[in-house]
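Bit of a strange request maybe. I'm writing a small parser for structure token strings and I need a real example to test against, not something I typed by hand. Could someone generate the tokens for this chain?
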Amino acid sequence: MSYVKDTLQSDEEILIIPELHWINFALPALAVIGAIILVAADFLLQLTDHGLWIIAAMLLVYAAFRILYLKCKEMAVTNKRVVLRKGIIASDGDEMKNIALTGIEVEQTVMGRILNFGNICFTSAGSGGRLRVVFDNIKNPRRLKAEIEDAIEQK
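Reply from user aminoacidic:
Good idea to test on real output. This should exercise your parser:
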């Protein structure tokens, strides 16, 4: 949590750091498994061209990029603000002061309800219109929403 910790004010503390659900890592894992299968098929079939190796390499690059992207993603709720930072080299982020929060909502798909993951959306009304910060694919979003509301109200 380098960005969040580096930008804390003197009287600010981190209250909650949401956990990503394992579903975020499912597609990269499938890409790695697919690459292994393609390389094994190339060995077993003793093909002369390297088409399967190229596809396997592309799958591995995708998996590495996606995992790195997920590892570089920072989400936190402090006693003063909600912070979302994402990006590997160039970073993009959103911050919202807790005073300006008008609502915290949970969005879940059918699969999200079954596997217990979803998005937590923080909304705020500003002079430029409605602002929104979304923590996506979070583990136990309904429980986390309640914890965030309790933590913000106590501070």
